[in-house]
Write a structure and sequence with these properties.
The protein has 284 residues and is α+β, with helices and mostly antiparallel strands. The protein has two domains: 6-225, Hsp33 domain; 231-278, HSP33 redox switch-like (CBS domain Like, Alpha-Beta Complex). It contains ten helices and 14 strands. It has helices at residues 26-32, 39-57, 103-107, 135-147, 181-189, 194-199, 202-209, 231-241, 243-253, 271-278; strands at residues 6-12, 17-24, 63-71, 75-83, 87-94, 110-118, 124-129, 150-157, 162-169, 215-217, 221-222, 224-225, 256-259, 266-269. The strands form three sheets. Strands 1, 2, 8, 9, 10 and 11 form a six-stranded antiparallel sheet that branches. The protein has a six-stranded mixed sheet with strand order 7-6-3-4-5-12, covered by helices on one side. A two-stranded antiparallel sheet has the order 13-14.
Length: 284
């Protein structure tokens, strides 16, 4: 069985190849259980959450990484976020789900946007067309085009767990004489099954895949579901809605409910709250 939600980093000795393996269990279920997603949507969101965690691991910054797919298919928008502390959340908005559940059918003609929002510094966005049959393939294109890094990504998810494996060849020549290491590692990684990635203990899987390779495995880092919604942030939505509209809603329903789309948390505002927000009773 898979262990607790975690990211396992590793590298191959005397080479320029690094890797990471992620397994999501409780964090994935917490991100999806409030929404009642159909199985194809659940699996796609699970792959996206695993991908955002792997990608966040490749960056050295404090902030938020957001992976967003948007197109003209049944899935209107798909969002997965991961902080530098490996806190994840995600959501999907969709219409009818087709019988075919490959990425082109679900998303349609669209694009993949990777947004990096550091705590300090400028926000960055990378855009990749959704031209491959899998999310993993699209992300490999992103690293090749935007980062000029040879990258292998494998993603699997079912209704309870999600997992991902990433190998990345860093710039420069390998320190050792093994020039065939990268293609050999790719062949080995490609043999990984969904059952292995989702259920085997990470170090067991890595030793099974690369038992003949000099691999260094680091201590795992926990991953958890983490939603950044707050009451203060929900008030921003009310301020954007405007005073007149807020009081009109109160006349209709006595209180205003704002639900977080990610975690389902409810923020309830009554007349006294709206008066406090806008500086006194309405004069309308």
């Amino acid at each position: 069985m898979a262990g607790q939600d975690q990211l396992q980093r590793f590298l191959f000795e005397d080479s320029n190849v690094r890797g990471a393996l992620v397994q999501l269990d409780d964090s994935f279920q917490r991100a999806t259980r409030e929404h009642g997603y159909p199985a194809p949507i659940t699996r796609l969101l699970g792959e996206s959450l695993a991908a955002s965690t792997l990608m966040s691991n490749t960056l050295k910054f404090e902030g938020l990484l957001t992976l967003q797919a948007q197109g003209d298919g049944p899935v209107r928008i798909l969002v997965a976020e991961c902080t530098h502390k490996l806190g994840i959340r995600g959501l999907a908005r969709f219409d009818d789900v087709p019988e075919q559940t490959d990425l082109p059918t679900l998303i349609g003609n669209g694009r993949l946007v990777i947004t990096l929002a550091p705590r300090q510094g400028q926000r960055y966005q990378g855009i990749v067309p959704l031209e491959r049959d899998t999310l993993a393939g699209c992300l490999e294109d992103y690293f090749a085009l935007s980062e000029q890094l040879e990258t292998f990504i494998l993603l699997f998810a079912d209704d309870k767990r999600a997992g991902g494996l990433l190998l990345q060849k860093l710039p420069g020549e390998a320190a050792g004489p093994d020039h065939d290491l990268w293609p050999r590692l790719l062949k080995l990684a490609e043999t990984t099954t969904a059952d292995e990635l989702l259920h085997l203990e990470p170090t067991t899987l890595l030793r099974r895949l690369f038992h003949q390779e000099p691999i260094r495995v680091f201590d795992p880092t926990p991953v958890e579901f983490s939603c950044s919604c707050t009451r203060d942030r929900s008030q921003n939505a009310l301020e954007a809605l405007g005073e007149e509209e807020c009081y009109a809603l109160l006349e209709e329903q006595a209180e205003i409910d704002i639900d977080c789309q990610f975690c389902g948390r409810r923020y309830i505002y009554r007349r006294a709250d709206i008066e406090s927000l806008f500086g006194g009773p309405s004069v309308h």
